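Below is the data:
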Amino acid sequence: MKKLIPTLLVTALFYWVSSCEKDDICVDGDTPLLVLGFFDVNDTAEAKAVPSIRIINMDIDSVLTNSTFGDRSNSPDSLQVPLRSNAVTTMYQIISGSDDDDETDEEIGNIDTLTISYELEEAFISRACGFVTNYNNISVTLTEGTENWIQDIKVVQPNVENTDNIHVKIFH
């Protein structure tokens, strides 16, 4: 009997400890963002900031903007922007030299429109994180205009699975 009680206690303790699970905390479960890098058209290896840039995410079904990314006061040489996970295209207006007209309060600056097309792929990360959306075979087209400030576009990483590297180079 003296040996039975310690054995039962050790067995009960073993079952209690082994039934514990890890906390369900998601550390790396975010859908990746598209990274746009801005480069000099004359020296394609040289990063080149865009003065007073503003990026507007346009809803495909309407001309009205639904959200704005970035800040006019910054002059970044790269930006991270989200892609829509419920459609296979996303449109952005990228505005160089962005400002508001004092009289009409309308956006002024050189506006170029990009259409980004892609295939959607869901990837299971873990029970805590669930699924994320990855974007494969991205392609970018520029709406041609008379005064495009964007001179060329090159997709350097066609699959968006993380935000570690530049996916699209924009030359200006």
